[in-house]
Design brief:
A 5-stranded mixed β-sheet has the order 1-2-3-4-5, with helices on both faces. Strand 4, helix 9 and strand 5 form a beta-alpha-beta unit. The longest helix has 43 residues. By secondary structure, the chain is an alpha/beta fold. Helices cover 67% and strands 9% of the residues.
Amino acid sequence: MALSADESGRLGELLASRSEQVTQRWTEIIAGQLRGRLTQAELVRQVQELHRALVDALSKGAVDLNAEDATELRAVLADFSRGQARQGFSATETATGVFALKEALLTALDDDQSIATLRDYVAFSALVDQMGLFTFETFVRTRESLIADQAEQLLELSTPVVKLWEGVVAVPLVGTLDSARAQVVMERLLQTLVDTGSPYAIIDITGVPAVDTQVAQHILKTVVAARLMGADCIISGIRPQIAQTIVALGIEFGDIATKASLADALRHVLRLTGVETSRRQSRREA
């Protein structure tokens, strides 16, 4: 339901003429819902900004929220929603904060019981409903964006590539290895190989709870990519349960070296580079 041009004009005049009464009551209602989680000064600023944008849109002849004259109002509502989302408020609290304008306006109309005023109020309620739904949708999109960003940050933190020895890097995997995470692992490992010039990489799956065909394929792709960069990979953390699962699934690692623990894998690499042999010789000479 859209406002008529006359209704829009009358409501704009009403909100402007009783701005102090409406904004004060609107602020009181929202403050009661938020229970002190937002400073009074910040809340008053938000309400006054919303009120100003609404009066401006109505005075220009906006008949609904999608009207061209309501562009600034949509922008203010979007900023309000994003701010609420980032400050930890719920979508319901955000939308009901807008819906509170109905009660605030009704309070301002208590001394006017004409049929025209009642019709204007009903029509205006539809506009407020649109505003509330708009803030709800913007809030949800903002929260989804925040969650996606946090998930990406956690993904990067959960796939570290560490330098164990000169020429030896390791990727200790913990948790489930899905396609998205496997891609991050591959990218970080390859970049580290380039940065360090390491000829050996250890992929440790001690913290991976289970290895199925999909996980094995992700690991094999990472090994192949590393080989294309000139680095040999060793897979460590092959526990008895995982070894049995790999055999049962018929997964073949081919000529890829596998070890039971990260320590075994590191000893294997040091043996290949001659480091351990040199130490043993020095001990014998001593």
